[in-house]
Amino acid sequence: MKKIIFTENAPAPIGPYNQAVLSGNTLYTSGQIAIDPKTGELVTANIEAETQQVMQNMKAVLEAAGMTFENVVKTSIFIMNMGDFGSINTVYGSYFNEKTAPARETVQVACLPKNVNVEISMIAVL
Q1: Rounded to an integer, what distance in angstroms lies between the CA atom of residue 93 and that of residue 82?
Q2: Segment 76-125, tens digit of pLDDT
Q3: 2-125: CATH homologous superfamily?
Q4: Going by DSSP bridges, is the β-strand pair 103-108/72-79 parallel, antiparallel, or unpaired?
Q5: What backbone phi and psi angles, to 5 degrees, belong to 18?
Q6: Helix axis angle, 85-93 relative to 47-64, nearest 10°?
Q7: 72-79 and 118-125 strand pairing
Q8: Buried-state track 109-124, b at ≥16 Cβ within 10 A, e below 16
Q9: pTM beyond 0.85
């Protein structure tokens, strides 16, 4: 059985998908990009601000499922420019305890939705 997770504190889906799906005790999130859920505008002033918005969106989705970043077991990061890796990693890392941080891959891609620079998805477990 699956439960659809939705919160107004994260951007509404821009296609035929949900913010997250809870199946049993495992949460599968859709990728989040840097859309400010209050304004609907992209936050792209710089890569740090963009990554911060992505992580805040992800935090809202996790909270809607009754979870925190401590519940995250796997993360996927998609970036447009591997040169931004250090800045993205610094912001991303500020949300996790390094000793209990999740598994992760970071992949450079050719293009992301709305031409953003970073998209992050997660898997979390209760």
Answers
A1: 16
A2: 999 999 999 999 999 999 999 999 999 999 999 999 999 999 999 999 99
A3: RutC-like (3.30.1330.40)
A4: parallel
A5: -115, 160
A6: 40
A7: antiparallel
A8: eeeeeeebbbbbbbbb
A9: yes
